[in-house]
Amino acid sequence: xxxxxxxxxxxxxxxxxxxxxxxxxxxxxxxxxxxxxxxxxxxxxxxxxxxxxxxxxxxxxxxxxxxxxxxxxxxxxxxxxxxxxxxxxxxxxxxxxxxxxxxxxxxxxxxxxxxxxxxxxxxxxxxxxxxxxxxxxxxxxxxxxxxxxxxxxxxxxxxxxxxxxxxxxxxxxxxxxxxxxxxxxxxxxxxxxxxxxxxxxxxxxxxxxxxxxxxxxxxxxxxxxxxxxxxxxxxxxxxxxxxxxxxxxxxxxxxxxxxxxxxxxxxxxxxxxxxxxxxxxxxxxxxxxxxxxxxxxxxxxxxxxxxxxxxxxxxxxxxxxxxxxxxxxxxxxxxxxxxxxxxxxxxxxxxxxxxxxxxxxxxxxxxxxxxxxxxxxxxxxxxxxxxxxxxxxxxxxxxxxxxxxxxxxxxxxxxxxxxxxxxxxxxxxxxxxxxxxxxxxxxxxxxxxxxxxxxxxxxxxxxxxxxxxxxxxxxxxxxxxxxxxxxxxxxxxxxxxxxxxxxxxxxxxxxxxxxxxxxxxxxxxxxxxxxxxxxxxxxxxxxxxxxxxxxxxxxxxxxxxxxxxxxxxxxxxxxxxxxxxxxxxxxxxxxxxxx
Length: 595
Description:
Blueprint: H1 7-10, H2 22-25, H3 66-78, H4 82-95, H5 100-112, H6 116-129, H7 134-146, H8 150-158, H9 166-180, H10 184-191, H11 201-214, H12 218-231, H13 237-249, H14 253-266, H15 274-281, H16 293-310, H17 314-327, H18 332-344, H19 348-356, H20 365-378, H21 382-395, H22 401-412, H23 416-428, H24 438-450, H25 454-467, H26 472-484, H27 489-502, H28 507-519, H29 523-536, H30 541-553, H31 557-569, H32 577-586
Pfam families: TPR_11 (PF13414), TPR_16 (PF13432), TPR_19 (PF14559), TPR_6 (PF13174)
Protein name: Tetratricopeptide repeat protein
Signal peptide: 1-35
């Protein structure tokens, strides 16, 4: 008998929807007033886990050898553990403080982990041996601006070679430095070098609007925002936020509402801007975010970090992001992006710490708490994750999202009956089921099928297809279930043929088609599809087992036993191990043909 594919394999890994990346949503800024720059109040950039219930990151061991500490740092960095890597490099530096081979990575790691005071001290030492080091000069520029010394910040920037990312970064920072010196005209002149740069027109326009607003030129700023809104096609979250809040504060409430509503209607799945729209409808004016040039510099660094993260240069993105937070410790959106990058790097503890540093009543408080629940699940803190989702569901009785995610979590834990209850509660919160809700019905259908409620499950799958015709993952699951139940085999075959055409590189869907052919007794066709599926998913024990069964039926018995042995080596479900072992020992001749 062949094993039935477990739920985590029958479904392409869709337990969670891809996060809406902040980096992909962002382009823009916000305004304020002009004048000489006061020092930025110093703040600890590190973020601490709020919940004492959470397991804490293990402390980094002390290594008595400089070479051992250095090598441990390299290994930790290779493994993506930047916090430990920074600890080890700083340990190594204590033994050999003047060694540039240790000094340079120590600076980069300190800057990439938000250790601003350490990074500032290291930057001074690096400049002595490598005057053009970009990380050192960036840190020193930020430190000068934080202390209110815009002249020194400008001197450092003026010496930087404008190549690579500096072609964008340096003129934008210098524009804000000039603005901070009380010369917004000079700032705009410096910014103008980007005006003709391909791909940076929106970024230039946003910063120009901001500088005009900081300089007290509200009419010019308004024109700039309107131009951007009309020429960007589909305005981003950041542009919408900044333009809308500007209109609110400048007596154009109706225009602000129009901007917010356009975004919400174009992005119906986004909860991020909804609180801002609600506040505007109540007449609550959004606060100013950028009140001085150091805030503008922070926005520049944030945008650069966003671009770098989109290009997967995440370590460099972290360096720029922490410098943005150093300039503006209350920069909520930067902390959201920080959490997002850390989450995507698999650094769950650090991601939760970043998200927990964001006030719950902020615009992003709701979204980041959903992400905290997601990371708690990844850290196997299931009870804490469920508590977080229950709290969110209670706080927003009109939102189905926390209950949807609760259902996904319970389904991933194979607590299928509880998952059905959560999904039912989520559906009950919908005033109307729209095409974008197909996934809710799909996932509920899976939980229903796994809890032996087939009639409801089948109805959900069919309704999901009604909302999203020819959705390949729904067709795959429904057709596979029909095959297992030996019903609607012709329809199942047609459905899977179509699903394979839509997702030819998905090994699970190709496997399902092969298994239909096997169930229909079309073993030669089954072998063709199952061999493709094994090529696409060579580490899957179920697909290898399926191929073994099909190979046996066409007389390729040595190859069949090879596939069964391979399936055993890939950690199949415990109840399948004796079945596979029996097939290896005795073959399948004594078994019914439809097994």
